[in-house]
Amino acid sequence: MSAAKIHVMMLPTAPIECQQFGQSILSTVQFMEISLQPEPKLQPRYWALGLMLLPIVLVSNLPWWVRLLACILPFSLTGTYRISTVNGDKFRTQLYFAFIPLKPEKCNLSGVIYVETKYNSAGPGIWTFLLLGPLQFIFSFIFDMLIPVLGGAYEIWLITAKGREIAAWQGFDQNHFEANVALLAARSGAEVRGRSR
């Protein structure tokens, strides 16, 4: 009888415990650092860099300064990417050029008033092909694909109350674009609007 009473008395506290547990999980998730998608994978970039540097190493009759200049393009193509993270109400983005981190940009998401989006449909088209030839067309397309952070069709910008404009993300994938916009809009509570410039 006493065991039954104890069991009945414990029932009302179970939902409260579940609710507290759920809130603690929610608060933990809210303050976890989340990267905007896709996260750059460095290992494939290192492999691509090695393959691009191989001809420079194998050609033996080149002067050292020519080798040095020839390394600029492979490092630029493989080592340019952006890492943007959301941690609670803090946003941080850092651009890497040739694997060298540039100055990061930070802001409080509570101070963001607009999440601006832009779609650049103009890529290397028929006019590029006709005016500059097939080689320019191919290289423009390759450049945009290899460095989406600089040439991607989709852009996300954060506009703060102080008038700062922060490039948050750029890329080609529409699903990643939509997920990143949803995350930034949910965390900041800012209005999503199109970017005119």
Descriptive account of the structure:
This protein is an alpha+beta fold. It has one domain: PH-domain like, CATH 2.30.29. 50% of the residues lie in helices and 25% in strands. The protein contains seven helices and nine strands, in the order H-H-E-H-H-E-E-E-E-E-H-H-E-E-H-E. It has helices at 2-10, 13-30, 42-58, 64-78, 126-146, 148-151, 174-188; strands spanning 33-35, 81-87, 90-97, 100-101, 105-108, 112-119, 154-160, 165-171, 191-194. Strands 1, 2, 3, 4 and 5 form a five-stranded antiparallel beta sheet that branches. Strands 8-7-6-9 form a four-stranded mixed beta sheet. Helix 3 packs antiparallel against helix 4 (64-78). It is globular, with a radius of gyration of 24 Å. The protein starts with a helix and ends with a strand.
Structural class: alpha+beta
Low-pLDDT regions: 1-18, 21-29
Mean pLDDT: 80
- Can you give the helix content as a percent range? 40-55%
Query: What Rg do the Cα atoms give?
Result: 24 Å
Overall 3D form = globular
What is the structure about, briefly put?
This protein has 7 helices and 9 strands, in the order ααβααβββββααββαβ.
List keywords for this structure.
single chain; four-stranded mixed beta sheet; 9 strands; 50% helix; 25% strand; disordered N terminus
